[in-house]
From TrEMBL:
InterPro entries: HotDog_dom_sf, THEM4/THEM5_acyl-CoA_thioest, Thioestr_dom. The lineage of its organism: Bacteria, Bacillati, Actinomycetota, Actinomycetes, Mycobacteriales. Belongs to the THEM4/THEM5 thioesterase family. CDD domains: PaaI_thioesterase (cd03443). It is an enzyme of class 3 (hydrolase). PANTHER family: ACYL-COENZYME A THIOESTERASE THEM4. It is found in: Cell projection, Ruffle membrane; Cytoplasm; Membrane. Residues 122-197 form the Thioesterase domain. It comes from Rhodococcus artemisiae. Signal peptide: none annotated. It catalyses: (5Z,8Z,11Z,14Z)-eicosatetraenoyl-CoA + H2O = (5Z,8Z,11Z,14Z)-eicosatetraenoate + CoA + H(+); dodecanoyl-CoA + H2O = dodecanoate + CoA + H(+); hexadecanoyl-CoA + H2O = hexadecanoate + CoA + H(+); octanoyl-CoA + H2O = octanoate + CoA + H(+). Keywords: Apoptosis, Cell membrane, Cell projection, Cytoplasm, Fatty acid metabolism, Hydrolase, Lipid metabolism, Membrane, Transit peptide. This is Acyl-coenzyme A thioesterase THEM4. It holds the Pfam family 4HBT.
Length: 212
């Protein structure tokens, strides 16, 4: 099917700027557990104070695990990490473990929580993690709106309240207006009482053919 872009082109290459056309990478049945166990290790790596001999054993076991996985390294777009919408955080350890609830032209909503790995100071989520959540959401908002691939021009975040670890939260965003290549987007992060913890505005700029 041809894809119409905002410049009136219907060329699938233009729709993707300078990006290759990625295909979904199907994960095996164990991949969700694989991601979960690494999330647990991320939490433990930043929340333990083990005796040095235990640290030494952990290093040996982690190196053995690295040796097991190393032969299976693949290039960008070839791993199921980041491409599986059924797995929290799309199966990417970079992303917080949030699940997509709504994905359509009106916007995208995700639900999830932050973990110990995402700790900033005094029990609150790290202030750098929240723009990550919004930035990824805006990428999905563009995808869901059917617009050509875009990169973030700017991302503004207002931190309204302390964002807690572990509590279930909801983030929702949408395209508010479009001006040529520019899509102006907004989103809010809320707790389950509806209190806004942070909100964000971003400019997502459609890539020209060949732009990386
Ligand atoms: C298969 C299953 C999939 C599942 C579903 C997956 C969905 C998939 C999710 C992906 C989720 C990841 C999403 C991450 C998204 C990033 O985080 S991208 C990484 C961060 N962003 C970047 O690295 C961008 C770096 N910047 C650039 O590359 C270039 O600046 C850009 C964006 C290509 C634009 O450059 P350019 O083409 O030269 O454009 P330029 O003429 O400068 O600007 C165009 C217009 O925008 C305006 N503009 C540009 N910058 C700004 C600014 N900062 N402020 C205001 N106006 C600006 C200009 O004034 C101009 O306006 P007009 O004159 O047209 O009115």
């Amino acid at each position: 099917m041809s894809e119409q872009n905002s410049r009136g082109g219907d060329d699938a290459y233009e729709h993707h700027g300078g990006f290759p056309v990625y295909e979904p990478v199907k994960a095996g049945p164990n991949f969700g557990r694989f991601v979960d166990v690494f999330r647990r290790l991320q939490d433990l790596a930043v929340s333990t104070h083990a005796p040095d001999d235990v640290v030494d054993q952990a290093i040996a076991q982690a190196e053995a695990l690295g040796d097991l996985l190393e032969p299976y390294k693949v290039g960008e777009g070839k791993s199921p990490a980041g491409f599986n919408v059924d797995i929290p955080g799309r199966g990417s350890l970079l992303l917080p473990p949030w699940t997509i609830e709504k994905f359509d032209a009106d916007g995208v909503r995700e639900r999830g929580h932050f973990r110990r790995y995402h700790l900033g100071g005094n029990g609150a989520v790290h202030g750098g993690t929240i723009p990550l959540l919004f930035d990824d959401l805006f990428g999905m908002v563009i995808h869901a709106s059917g617009r050509p691939i875009a990169r973030t021009g700017y991302l503004h975040v207002n931190y309204r309240k302390i964002t807690p670890l572990w509590d279930e939260l909801v983030v929702e965003g949408r395209v508010d207006s479009v001006d040529g290549r520019k899509a102006f987007c907004s989103a809010e992060l809320r707790d389950l009482d509806g209190t806004v913890l942070a909100d964000s505005e971003a400019l997502m700029i459609e890539l020209l053919p060949g732009q990386p």
